[in-house]
Hints:
Layout: H1 3-16, H2 30-38, H3 43-52, H4 59-69, H5 72-89, H6 102-105
Helix pairs in contact: 2-5, 3-4
Amino acid sequence: MDAVEQRERILEDAHRAVPAGRQVRLAPHREAVLIYRARGFSYEQIAAALNRLGLQASPTNVGLFCRRHFRKADIQRKRLELETAASVSGTPVPAPTPRVPSFISGRRGGRS
């Protein structure tokens, strides 16, 4: 087998390959996770809510999912959407939890 033929076989195999075990359990629940984040829930609170409803999720997995799938703008847009919908229907919306800067809270910085 020459190098060109080998290269073609490898490329063909790469195009057909499907990664094993790379299933995202939270993907079908993307909208629900986004709503939780827009309402100010922490990763721990979201994981607890999902576990209570029968979906096994750790706070770490929820955090990874949120960082990979949502931008801050997505969360802010959903927050505004929820507030607007609540003001139209007259249902009160709980105020988002105020963020304490990391230098005040004593924790190292990170994504927020």
